[in-house]
Amino acid sequence: MRRKTSETFKPSRRFKVLLTCLVPCAAALGAACIYWHAARDTPGAAAAAPAPLIYPRAAPTAVPPPVIAPAIAQQASAESTIEVIVGRNDTLDSIFRRMALDKSDLAAIRNLPGVRQSLDFLKPGDAVKLTQKDGEIKELSRKVSETQTLKVVRDDAGFEAKIINDPVETRIRTATATIDASLFQAAEAANISDSVALKLANAFAWDIDFVLDIRDGDRFTAVYEQIFQDGKYLRDGELLAAEFLNNGKVYRAVRFVNDAGDAGYYAPNGTPMRKAFLRAPVEFTRVSSVFNPHRLHPILNLIRGHMGTDYAAATGTPVHAAGDGRVSFAGRRGGYGNAVILAHSNSISTLYGHMSRFAKHIRVGLHVRQGDVIGYVGMTGLATGPHLHYEYLINGVHKNPQTVHLAGAAPLRADALQKFRVVTAPLLADLTQQPPQAIPAPGTGPLASEPPRLSQDLLRIPGPESLSIASIN
Ligand SMILES: [Zn+2]
Q1: Are strands 263-266 and 309-312 parallel, antiparallel or unpaired?
Q2: 392 three-state secondary structure
Q3: Could you say which of 65, 342, 358, 437 would form a disulfide bridge with 325 (CB–CB 3.0 to 4.6 Å)?
Q4: 304-322, pLDDT tens digit by residue?
Q5: pLDDT over 70 at 219, yes or no
Q6: Cα–ligand 1 centroid distance for 179 (angstroms)
Q7: Residue 225: Cβ within 10 Å count
């Protein structure tokens, strides 16, 4: 799988090695786990404060190595232009010194009205273009924003500065991909960037468990912005609309900015995609066994009496609060090891077990918001490999976190809905104007001739009706 940062890549590689050791003894591993009912929590009313879209990713901060400008001793009278990439600790003064440029030119340029602030703030990786002759500056330019360039030109009267506007153009791209190995591989094959694939996964994070629910043949369509400048592709913009066909079920989401200025994803009927709980309380990109529908999950969920869902992940992988709530327990709890129990509204509680450690400040009574990090994956308690054990209970009764109905916010009303329909109609049309493809019913379609894939069916935890007292030990 393609990874953007080495931060996510390294643990997963390490984990692959670990998995190799784990798989053969997976059954023994599961059997060794002892699970029992979580404490009957007394849930408090959780504040329904809006949570940000989950799993924000830091923008990559790759800084190109500084270009050391060559000495300008040769060709004394020739005019030359060079683009200097700002290195760490570089200042304009040091660049001028290094290039043997006239420092009085720099002083004169700095004194031009309005120039200083757009000139002096240099970041590593910024580019400054300099044209000089005999060490005298003829021209200096640098981008001060995506669409604006500061240009200083020398003429007979001295230096003159101007801002050149170079607007960007937003184009809308619609692309469809079919998953046969992973979300990211499918996206790559369809020329969809990782950032767009992640936005798509975030938009559906309340409906689809991207760790365990993704199957061969799942298909997605993304309608998103691509930003161009001077006809050249610059970057991707917002994901505007998306469709995900998961296991025969179609989910659609469209981006909408409400009157308060908050952007979010909504179903075509105006219902927010955001729900009270995330499907998976770990970031799916950090889970090593993600999206391999061909492989059996190393920690078997078919163990009788297993009351939750296991997410195999490297030790230290952040664990997120599935919903807004209050910490009702944080500490050592027998076979669960280091566990956190959150009490949510509507008599719902969630439990997170085997953690290596808790997030700072986590203590009983603390209010957490959906997506907050509460701890880190580990293997404390009765676990022979690092994984998160996650339980979802209503009135103390275990429910399947992957399939339980999750309450969402109320749909948009009246005026907002009217506006929503107008704004989103063309985007939804883009979504649905994809080449028609039959939606295979479960058990049919291109994979129908294959035997049932264990990787999914075995991963389902038994519903509460299949649990008996004897199975909970
Ligand atoms: Zn478990």
Answers
A1: unpaired
A2: strand
A3: 342
A4: 356 788 888 889 999 999 9
A5: yes
A6: 27
A7: 16
d(C-alpha 210, C-alpha 320), whole Å:
14
Q: How confident is the model at residue 3 (pLDDT cuts 50, 70, 90)?
A: very low
- Cα 363 to averaged position of ligand 1 atoms, centre (Å): 23
Q: Which residue has the tokens 């670990």?
A: 18
User: Is it the case that residue 243 has pLDDT exceeding 70?
Assistant: yes
Collect residues with CB below 5 Å from ion ligand 1. Answer: 310, 389
Return the CATH fold of 79-165: Nuclear Transport Factor 2; Chain: A, (3.10.450)
Q: N- to C-terminal Cα distance for the chain?
A: 38
Separation of CA 189 from chain center:
19
Q: Which residue has the tokens 């107008």?
A: 422
Residues 326, 46 contacting (CB under 8 angstroms): yes
Alpha helices in 33-111 (DSSP H): 92-98, 103-110
306 CA distance to ligand 1 centroid (A)?
6
Among 3.40.50.720, 3.40.109.10, 3.30.1330.10, 3.10.450.350, what is the CATH number of 169-273? 3.10.450.350
For residue 148, give both structure tokens. 């604006």
Distance 258 CA to ligand 1 centre (A): 40
